[in-house]
Protein: Trans-aconitate methyltransferase
Amino acid sequence: MALQTIPARIRWAVEVLDVQPADQVLEIGCGQGQAAELICSRLKTGKLLAIDRSESGVDRTKRRCAEFISAGRLAVRHIDLATLRIPVKRLDKVFAFNVNLFWVRDCQDELALLHERLSPGGAIFLFYDASRPDQLPTALEKASAALVQAGFRVSVVESKSPAAIGLIGRR
Structure:
């Protein structure tokens, strides 16, 4: 299967994720399914659960990644993280790109759920488009503070080209 056109910032973020063949991954805000396509292409025995609050995002991901759904490597659900009951006992990686949940409101309940479900050595990867300088400092400051408050150790990764930045929260 030839991967459809995927923006460089999404490719970079998935590279940072370093998905391993047996990883259990949760993507929050799957949108058009671009990251799901890249992540699933790396999985063999692992699985990706991709969620989105938008029904159209879920539909686009299902269409784009139908092959991975059929292979059992991808499940896509129309649900909010706050109401999600994670079906796997342990997640290796949690991934989100430009998801405002982590900086626009109190997200401690969601982060507590993720902290509980992450395996030892697991991590949350929150990525943001750095070409939006009006929002980026606030997003990084608030998301980083939320991760620290939830018990994560936070590090920052940055790409100049494409302009993207990520917060990595480790248990």
Remarks:
- Helices lie at 8-17, 34-42, 55-64, 66-70, 101-104, 108-117, 136-149.
- The mean pLDDT is 93.
